[in-house]
């Protein structure tokens, strides 16, 4: 991929990374705030169960966001190595539209579909 194109995607990836880190921080703050508020307020098991479910859901979301940060970091590394925009499975160019939708994509659509089929 040419330098101008990768610079544009690098900027997009850095922005997406910052947004994702911010989202994880927000989730952590909300969980901590919720936990502090709840310690003295919950009087019945239903309230405690609901709060526990909410915290677990938020932790799962944060975990998925952390995976995205990892994928973004890997994409930034591929840019530095000159490998960005090439499918890691077949070596073909990943279409620009796909990279615009998922800038940290590491597989072309066909290879990604094959990976998803294999997981089932």
CA radius of gyration is: 19 Å
Shape estimate:
elongated
Q: Spans of 5+ residues with little confidence (pLDDT < 50)? A: none
Order of helices and strands: HHHH
Give me the oligomer status.
single chain
Cα-to-Cα separation, first versus last residue: 33 Å
Structural class: mainly alpha
Strand % is under 5%
Major sheet size, sense and barrel closure? none
* Total number of helices: 4
Q: How many beta-strand elements?
A: 0
Percent helix: over 70%
pLDDT averaged residue by residue: 87
Written overview of the protein:
By secondary structure, this protein is mostly helical. It has a domain at 3-84. Helix content is 78%, strand content 0%. The protein is built from four helices and no strands. The longest helix has 39 residues, at 3-41. The mean pLDDT is 87.
Quick take:
By secondary structure, the chain is an all-alpha fold.
List the keywords:
120 residues; mainly alpha; single chain; elongated; 78% helix
